[in-house]
Design a protein that fits this description.
With 395 residues, the chain is α/β, with parallel strands linked by helices. It has helices at 42-46, 53-74, 87-96, 103-111, 131-148, 157-166, 215-225, 232-246, 269-279, 286-315, 330-343, 362-373; strands spanning 2-7, 12-22, 29-40, 121-127, 152-156, 168-169, 173-176, 183-188, 193-200, 203-209, 319-323, 348-350. β8 and β9 form a beta hairpin. Zinc ion (ZN) binds next to α6.
Length: 395
Amino acid sequence: MKILAIETSCDETAVAVLECESTGEGNAARFTVLGNALLSQIEIHREFGGVYPAVAKREHAKNLVPLLESALAEANMLHEDTQSMDSGVHDAITATLEREPGLTEAFLASIGEMEKPEIDAIAVTAGPGLEPALWVGVNFAKALSLAWDKPIVSVNHMEGHICTALATSTDQSLDIPSTELPLLSLLISGGHTELVLAREWLSYELIGATRDDAVGEAFDKVARMLGLPYPGGPEISRLAELARARGGENPYTLPRPMIHDPHCDFSFSGLKTSVLYLVKDKELSETQKEDLALAFEDAVADVLYAKTSRALMDTSAKTLALGGGVSANTHIKRAFAERMAADFPDVRLCIPAASLTSDNALMIGMAGFYHAAKGDFVVLDELKANGNRKLADAA
Ligand code: KG4
Ligand code: ZN
């Protein structure tokens, strides 16, 4: 099955074409990457110190058509067609793209002149994320569905992050081996911090979640307090690694909120406030910033691991997946690998490849395939972007 995947939930615009096939037992599957195009808006948002939804929406609308062309060209599916578009289809597309200024003209000029590509379905992120940004991708997918008469799979962004954790990547393909269940996922990104359990493939229970800030948000806010650019996660990580390499005693210690509480929820706003007290009205030296970054990263890693290990014990999960932008963090990955090997030698730890931790369309194509294989398509008129879409409700 060939899938065209679209991702616009935050500050990455991405389009990919994947050839997907089941390869054996359970969820085992191979995804051959036929085309993959991505544009990050990080440089644009850095100026504002964070992601501005209206700017993200505008950039997605500008970039989707060129990225689609680029992904299709790489997949050798971009061919000119001289037949003109049916007027009913033309009108339906115009109505669908009404709220995406600038996109209609570019869409009709490009898609109106191309042959229908040999794909079987369109997978699009419908949530969670920034709603105005999500809508651009959703409306774009709807317009493509009308133009090409292909069904749409509505993908949960977080399920995409789980798929990337489970996949091993080779040169041109991604392979997901049969996953031993229950599967516990620790999803850590700019908007999420949650532990979800799948006793069955694609069916989720919420085991724990943050009660205030997401962990990526805490990284970004602490980075801003230290005068570091957006996105803060990689910057904090860089400073903390410098402090670790330097060694010696760290003058800073930070709290580990709720670490001993008998549940699997998280809280990061108190930790962030503790950093604020330490930096307020002070001119910190580079060394002090590095030490503080290290203290923050250690506190975060300890809390994440403590809650995850509690969840592993409570659920007897056989596989643990780390997903989301924060799972790029070197220290968190290292801490989990070391501690899991000692505490849970029988649980398989799955960490996404560094190149796939940030948002991309491959993850959406992988998650989309599993739903498409079950015939889980949406009715076009009912498809909506949902910024708060949940993977699981509390059990
Ligand atoms: O999954 P993602 O790309 O977008 C969302 O869906 O939110 O996650 C972005 C978040 C940002 O908060 C960013 O600072 C954080 O992931 N992040 C990191 C690292 N790289 C990205 N946090 C800690 N360490 C990193 N190396
Ligand atoms: Zn994400």
